[in-house]
Amino acid sequence: MSRSTTNEAATWREGRRQRAWELFQMGWRQRQIATALGVSESAVSHWLAQARHAGPQALLRRPRSGRPPRLSLDQQAQVPALLTQGATAFGFRGDRWTRQRVAEVIQRHFGVRYHPAHISRLLSRWGWSRQKPIRRARQRDEAALQQWREKRYPALVKKGPG
After folding, report:
1. pTM above 0.70?
2. N or C: which end of the chain has fewer CB within 10 A?
3. What structural domains does the chain harbor?
4. What is the spatial distance between Cα 4 and Cα 111, in angstroms, rounded to a whole number?
């Protein structure tokens, strides 16, 4: 059964447009509809014009235009799991992911090539953010630093009046 026959909205935005049409059919004015749905009058005017011109089906969600993704949704869901294995699991030196490395892993596993610049957008879509490693000296002595913070530093800080 299709959505149009069940009158079930695919998204809340679609449902809002359909509700605007229903309210208009019941005799509500554009201003009342806009206030009730929390949108501008111009949005309601646009929706109603679409529905009058092409019917209520014009208010349904349309698929996005543009080129389809190279990786299927299932493949896209697999990539973060691959990346959590770490870069060394894929033969890279060091456990740092770079755009080039991610692109190479995607090509190896799925046979799909992406430009490294596009990898940033994909990683963002998958919930991964850019991380910059904190540079620290190899000779760093955490215990000595902690002691300095707790004992020496407070003695050096100027005390205010009072």
Report:
1. no
2. C
3. 7-59 (1.10.10), 73-125 (no CATH)
4. 38
